[in-house]
Amino acid sequence: QVQLVESGGGLVQPGGSLRLSCAASGTIFTINAMRWYRQAPGKQRELITAITSGGSTNYADSVKGRFTISRDNAKNTVYLQMNSLKPEDTAVYYCNADIETRLWSAAHEYWGQGTQVTVSS
Prior knowledge:
By secondary structure, the chain is an all-beta fold. Helices cover 0% and strands 56% of the residues.
């Protein structure tokens, strides 16, 4: 089985920073794309950033220039550095990854349990 476990959420003042981590564990052959989503109260879950196994990234306009995604393939971990946080960034943040559990197997999509980020003074 594969698990994704997020950490690093919390309460931060507007303009502050947080760094989220998401570690994958279990039977893993290779991890392809890794992503961060968020879901604010009363809103749909939205994709905010993604990173390929080779390190190519993309960002939603709402976070571009403020958030940075990175990954450590040796640790099966993806990070989200969030700077210049705004109250509208308040949401539950989820990591997501496409993981192959053995050679020649199809990749399956896995989700973390989510971590709360609250931006408030």
